[in-house]
Design a protein that fits this description.
membrane, 11 helices, transmembrane helix, TatC, mainly alpha, Sec-independent protein translocase protein TatC
Length: 286
């Protein structure tokens, strides 16, 4: 009797050790996915560091110049509507650095940020490679376009934040004064932080359809629930628009809110597609 208990205990210990080894194997695999992602980010960071003169003058400082694409399009829109006040002739942005190593750390940090943005698609691909073996064949097919759609939405969000939200915010904040006795001098860190936050936050918000797809697949969200909560979603979207845009004017908030409303409606469509697929699988199973 004691021999049987001993054999059973040895078998259970072996199973536990096998499970632990499997867990640590997964951790090791995840570590290598993260290492490769970090290497890709470092490569892009090095490229951004090497071409930093062009990146700083043309990309980072672009929204602070009247010749920026957005301002030129606004001027053309004003001419087409025969309205004055659309053209931006001057943006009073005066930048300063008050730290000894400020400009060097600025170049390092902004190059790292650009490296992370450029390396984001590769990071998604590594995440997909790590998750893919754990999925069933149908789940792999259903989520096969994850990297493509997530990257596309991220790029659209980045472009929207950079070409729409950022220039409107920079123009408003740089020109806003409460007294002619106060001169606006912005630290370079504050300027770059504002540009990076507005751009990256927009890229993150545009991942809403992907989030809806995941939650719908888990059974947490349904199209019926999203339709019934549309009125609350409108309030939340307006709050998000107010947080993303530091400018209090209604025009900027409206411009930011419209794509978010569209993304919410797209999310309802995505949730509906997921629900139909679930029903089809259930019917096929019966």
């Amino acid at each position: 009797m004691s021999d049987n208990k001993l054999i059973k205990a040895i078998k259970e210990k072996g199973q536990n050790m096998e499970a632990e080894m499997s867990f640590f194997d997964h951790l090791e695999e995840l570590r290598w996915h993260l290492v490769r992602s970090a290497i890709a980010v470092c490569i892009f960071m090095g490229v951004a560091f090497y071409y930093y003169d062009f990146i700083f003058s043309q990309i980072i400082m672009g929204p602070a110049k009247p010749t920026f694409w957005t301002y030129r399009m606004l001027c053309k829109l004003g001419d087409a509507l025969h309205r004055d006040g659309f053209c931006v002739h001057e943006i009073p942005v005066k930048l300063m650095n008050n730290e000894m190593a400020g400009q060097f750390t600025l170049q390092i940090n902004s190059a790292l940020m650009i490296g992370m943005v450029l390396g984001f698609p590769y990071l998604l691909w590594e995440v997909w490679r790590f998750i893919k073996p754990a999925l069933h064949e149908k789940e792999r097919k259903a989520a096969g376009g994850f990297v493509f759609y997530a990257t596309t939405l991220f790029v659209i969000g980045i472009m929207f934040g950079y070409y729409i939200i950022t220039p409107m915010s920079v123009n408003f904040l740089a020109s806003y004064t409460i007294s002619p006795e106060i001169t606006n001098w912005f630290s370079i860190d504050s300027y770059i932080s504002s540009v990076a936050t507005l751009t990256l936050a927009s890229g993150a918000v545009f991942q809403l359809p992907i989030l809806v797809y995941i939650l719908s697949s888990l059974g947490i969200l349904t199209p019926k629930y999203m339709r019934s909560g549309r009125r609350y979603a409108i309030v939340i979207i307006l709050i998000i628009a107010a947080v993303i845009t530091p400018t209090p004017d209604m025009l900027t908030m409206t411009v930011v809110s419209i794509p978010l409303f569209v993304l919410y409606e797209v999310g309802i469509v995505v949730a509906g597609v997921v629900e139909k697929r679930k029903l089809a699988r259930e019917v096929a199973g019966e």
